[in-house]
Amino acid sequence: MECYIIILESMKISKNMQTALNNQIVLEANASNSYMAMASWCQVTGYDGSASFFYAQSNEEREHMLKIIHYLNNLGIPAVIPATKLPASSFKSLESILKIALNNEQIVTTAIHKMVEIAQKDKDYSTSAFLGWFVNEQVQEETKFETLIQKFDLIGRDKLAINEIDKILASSKSD
Q1: Which long-range contacts (CB under 8 A, 24 or more apart) does 49-53 make?
Q2: Which of 5, 16, 53, 171 has its CA 20 to 30 A from that of 119?
């Protein structure tokens, strides 16, 4: 029995890290809702491929949120389930949506890097290892949106080009 207690004691995380992880839950929940709003706008605007892409992005962000919730709960720490802010529902263009999405991903990356710094400072090796997946995921996410935004310069911004980019987004949803 003593060994079990020692193991649990060694897996405790600092209050600072708990706060950072709960704040990340908020970011992931807001990102999920933001992508859902983008998907809705795309669907109504006739960008079916983009709508499909952003619905998938919304689900992915929700999965990220659940990873953090499960991590905290598995440590015996109740996760704080947040209220979310109302996302924008009107957008200027498909290109503007992709730029907003890239900016949002950059904000998430910054927050994850700050959590890694906290874990390193706290010598919290378990949380540091857990966060490694998120660090790698963010590299992929930022690269994905940067590449999609480049398509406007490569293909153009006329109606045919945007239709082609919409098709590219449809095929990108599983990346």
Answers
A1: 49/166, 49/167, 49/168, 49/169, 49/170, 49/171, 50/94, 50/97, 50/165, 50/166, 50/169, 50/170, 52/169, 52/170, 52/173, 53/169, 53/170, 53/172, 53/173
A2: 5
In this predicted structure, the answer to whether residue 9 has a pLDDT above a threshold of 80 is no
Domain residue extents for the chain: 14-78+90-172
Quick one: fold of 14-78+90-172?
Ferritin (1.20.1260)
**Of 83, 72, 85, 159, residue with least CA distance to 124:** 72
pLDDT band (50, 70, 90) for residue 8: very low
| 21 contacts 71 by C-beta, under 8 angstroms | yes
